[in-house]
Specification:
Distance between the termini: 43 Å
CATH superfamily of the largest domain: Metalloenzyme, LuxS/M16 peptidase-like
CATH architecture of the largest domain: 2-Layer Sandwich
Structural class: alpha+beta
Shape: elongated
Radius of gyration: 37 Å
CATH topology of the largest domain: Cytochrome Bc1 Complex, Chain A, domain 1
Strand content: 15-25%
Helix content: 40-55%
Number of helices: 32
């Protein structure tokens, strides 16, 4: 496609319907622009008449505002198929194409992304014109669109596909365009996917036809030598009686997001040339910025004056260059195609191509280049206006872009555009991050993967034989009382507290949870970084196994495992089965007790950790969290509880050495202050003896004093972090409470917080910020309290579009104020009680959750009796008790807030 060839876009298509009514009156003219006269029929049909007595021919064109852009999933190629079927049978014509040929008419149909059109040109003759108008009215709603016609045309459509598939340059353009679009239908070929076309559903195709082939979605153009009054009467007679449809057409609304990075497509097929195809997203034809790209295309790709021609074709580095912006209804592409001989150095040509096109910022379009492009466009436009047939077809493209008058608007914008406007558009849109590049490199032996075909479920299942039946397990009462009765609790010689809950489970599963505590406030001074890295290094090598061997061993045992933690507490998880529990428990003990901290693994881990921190440092939620903790918890940097910012964390990791981590492990790690809980299908005595052997003698070299976590004394602070290019923002809040989970008010606050923000869609905050205001995907509040000291908090959170920050803050403020002043109501109280009890019952039915809970109960010297007592207290709560607790504990002015996002 040369830059001078400005016929908007095309390809091919057609289809059926019926129903006529009473005679319609002759319409009055609505608009006239430079010899183009517009009329509108009562049924919505737009009519353009372009009389020209100097031409002895007439062109009749009908344009429907439907193209591949309107096709849904599984319907690709449907608009084009209809175009073919419009030349088949209608209610009163056996074969439209045959009748057109009999009359010696020049005719065709074309389909593009935005429109489908049909036209015929013939010597000026009133009878021929009348027949043409009747025929177009006939196929507007009277085409049959039947399987018989489709079957006879399918070979033709396939052949058209194959013609396209034979052109490697065409395939390159198609695949590069597809890569440029992730969501918009402009990325799909108008001819459609072969599977969609070959398996098209006829009723769906007929429905597509009836939906779009209607007078209110069409423009009839008649151009050439004809009698205007008589032609209007004929149009009113044959088209005006078609009823206006009752259906409404919804506009398409998908817009391609900003590309945000280079994309590249490589194609290797048999071919005689090489090619480079370059695309950049640009505005739609309707945009005032669009005209600049008509100028840019000419300045770059004109023959013989374009920059690319002079730098690539003229010196023999390429054979041809073409450039064009897509004149489409929605944002499209500026494309540049470069064709090279098979032996031309493609990398050299690509370098020149990219540096020339993307070098427009440094080498702007000149006034001379602008003027040359404007002169060419004026010449081109004059040629269109002087040829009614050509004008008729060009207007069809403008109609597809939104309005036939856009052709004249574009002409005027090109005439008036300035060098500054052209170069501003180039700087804005022509850049690497907006580029998709396709490369075609011919090969005599393309190594193509086979086509993957469908396989029916019946075919896949024909040789299937069920495996061994999985055991269903026992019927288990997950009440707190039964959990306490069924659980054996022991303290090992090392001091480790052990909880064993054997039970028959489906699949003989076993869940293990181990918590390890070590150090003291003084002993852990300046150990935050080294100690925090130990859990991540465990499992990367032991005295007898490498990292890969450890993972292979766990996989062989069908066991999932993990170790996590920080400088004062670590956790190990193990999910296995009865037959493998001894080997799996032995292996996790090896991981925990015999690490070697391989230097190579240490270096890899440091790189991974730094990369993760660098990534999180630009994420609003992570930034808001760090800033909130640094505001609310003011520990010195030497304290293990200190929250470092991202830069500090990265710097500390870079300064850390492997020996410091190994030394921390040797000094602090042990199981004398630990809790181990195992729940599932295992032999209780056997596992107890094994746990004693594996962990009973593992004692830390350092004394342990539980690290206090006092409630914050910082209230009412607000921190705002600006993070560029992050449209989704985060808000986090923290209300410190001098509260222990054994406090008499804890049950009431648990219920209150559920109503406020922990009850999902049945909570106040989600009801306001998501359900009512539509501002947040997720918002809420959660209560937590220590089991050891008066240290608790209510945490608040919300995610939202950054521009809605003030509305989100207002929503929080108003809901919190109303919550404190009005309290909750009886229905909310009843629903919250019920939800909390159901949630607890669900959690106790999960073996992994029970194992995790037992580690917590063991540390606090509790049993499930505490949870049962809490549930009794929740059930007994009155409305006055809950609302009194709300007024006592919840003060919105004392909440610390941290917000992060692109608020600029």
């Amino acid at each position: 496609m040369r830059h001078g060839n400005r016929a908007f876009l095309s390809v091919l298509c057609v289809l059926p319907s019926l129903c006529y009514g009473a005679t319609a009156s002759v319409p009055a003219q609505t608009v006239e622009i430079e010899g183009v006269h517009e009329y509108r029929l009562a049924n919505g049909l737009q009519v353009l008449l372009i009389p020209d007595a100097s031409k002895a021919t007439v062109t009749v064109n009908v344009t429907y505002r439907v193209g591949s852009r309107m096709e849904s999933y599984g319907e690709t190629g449907m608009a084009h198929l209809l175009e073919h079927l419009m030349f088949k049978s209608t209610r009163n014509i056996a074969n439209v194409g045959t009748e057109l040929s009999k009359r010696g008419m020049q005719f065709n149909g074309t389909t593009s992304t935005d429109r489908t059109n049909y036209y015929e040109t013939f010597p000026a003759d009133a009878k021929q014109l009348a027949w043409a108008l009747n025929t177009e009215a006939e196929r507007m709603t009277g085409a049959k669109v039947i399987k018989q016609d489709l079957d006879t045309e399918m070979t033709v459509v396939r052949n058209e596909m194959e013609m396209g598939e034979n052109s490697p340059v065409g395939i390159l353009m198609q695949k590069t365009t597809a890569a440029a679009y992730q969501w918009h239908n402009y990325g799909k070929s108008t001819i459609g996917a072969r599977s969609d076309v070959e398996n098209v559903n006829i009723p769906h195709l007929q429905a597509f036809y009836r939906k779009y082939y209607q007078p209110d979605n069409a423009t009839l153009i008649v151009a050439g030598a004809f009698d205007t009054a008589q032609t209007l009467r004929q149009i009113s007679s044959v088209f005006g009686v078609i009823p206006k449809p009752k259906r409404s057409l919804e506009p398409t609304y998908t817009l391609e997001p900003v590309q945000d990075g280079e994309r590249e497509v490589s194609l290797r097929r048999i071919g005689g040339v090489q090619a480079l195809f370059l695309t950049y997203h640009i505005p739609a034809l309707t945009s005032a910025d669009y005209a600049a790209f008509e100028i840019i295309a000419i300045a770059l790709a004109d023959t013989p004056n374009g920059r690319l021609y002079r730098r690539l074709v003229e010196p023999g580095k390429a054979t041809q260059v073409y450039g064009s912006p897509s004149r489409q209804a929605e944002p499209g592409l500026l494309t540049v195609l470069l064709v090279l001989k098979k032996d031309d150095p493609i990398d050299d040509a690509q370098a020149i191509l990219l540096s020339t096109v993307e070098g427009l910022a440094a080498e702007p379009i000149t006034a001379v280049e602008l003027r040359r492009a404007q002169v060419q466009w004026d010449k081109h436009f004059d040629q269109i206006l002087s040829d009614p047939r050509r004008l008729c077809l060009t207007l069809s493209e403008a109609i597809g872009s939104g309005d036939w008058r856009l052709l004249f608007v574009l002409r005027d914008r090109i005439r008036s555009v300035s060098p500054e406007q052209v170069n501003a558009s180039a700087r804005e849109w022509i850049k690497p991050s907006n580029r998709t590049l396709g490369r075609f490199m011919p090969t005599d032996a393309p190594d193509r993967a086979p086509l993957a075909n469908r396989v029916s479920p019946q075919e896949a299942l024909k040789d299937f034989k069920p495996g061994t039946q999985i055991g269903t397990g026992e019927i288990f009462d997950a009440s707190p009382a039964n959990l306490d009765v069924r659980t054996r609790r022991i303290t090992l010689p090392s001091g480790l507290k052990l909880a064993l809950l054997p039970k028959k489970t489906r699949g003989e599963t076993v869940k293990l949870r181990l918590n390890l505590h070590f150090g003291s406030e003084q002993g852990l001074q300046n150990e935050r970084v080294a100690g925090g890295l130990v859990p991540a290094l465990l499992g990367l090598g032991t005295k007898t196994r490498s990292r890969a061997q450890i993972q292979d061993a766990f996989d062989t045992l069908k066991t999932d495992w993990s170790v996590s933690g920080n400088a004062w507490v670590a956790s190990a998880h193990l999910d296995t089965r009865r037959g493998n529990v001894k080997e799996a428990l032995t292996l996790i003990a090896e991981v925990l007790r015999e690490p070697t901290f391989p230097p190579s693994e240490f270096d890899q881990l440091i790189r991974r950790e730094i990369a993760g921190l660098e990534s999180r440092s630009t994420e609003p939620a992570a930034m808001a969290s760090v800033k909130l903790l640094r505001t609310a918890e003011t520990y010195p940097s030497s304290d293990v509880r200190y929250t470092a910012d991202f830069a500090e964390q990265i710097r500390s990791l870079k300064e850390l050495n492997r020996d410091a981590v190994a030394d921390f492990y040797q000094k602090f790690w042990g199981a004398n202050n630990a809790e181990l809980a195992i729940v599932g299908d295992f032999d209780q005595d056997e596992v107890q003896a094994l746990a004693t052997r594996l962990f009973g003698d593992w004692v830390s070299a350092s004394s342990y004093v539980r690290l206090a976590q006092p409630a914050s004394t910082i209230f009412g602070q607000q921190v705002v972090s600006l993070i560029r290019d992050k449209p989704n923002a985060s808000a986090l809040g923290l209300l410190p409470l001098q509260l222990e989970d054994s406090d008499p008010d804890y049950p009431a606050l648990l219920v209150a917080t559920h109503v406020l923000g922990a009850g999902g869609f049945d909570s106040r905050l989600i009801g306001r910020l998501r359900q009512k205001d539509g501002l947040s995907y997720g918002a809420g509040a959660n209560l937590s309290a220590s089991k050891f000291e008066a240290s608790g908090k209510i945490s608040f959170y919300a995610s939202f579009a950054a521009q809605n920050r003030l509305r989100v803050q207002q929503g929080f403020a108003e809901e919190l104020a109303r919550f404190v002043s009005d309290g909750i109501n009886a229905d909310e109280l009843a629903n919250a009680k019920k939800a909390i009890l159901i949630r607890n019952n669900t959690t106790r039915a999960d073996d992994a959750a029970v194992a995790g809970a037992w580690t917590v109960w063991l540390e606090a010297n509790r049993t499930y009796a505490f949870e049962a007592d809490l549930e009794t207290k929740v059930t007994a709560l009155t409305l006055d008790q809950v609302n009194a607790a709300v007024r006592k504990w919840i003060d919105p002015a004392r909440i610390d807030w941290s917000l992060a996002g692109d608020f600029n």
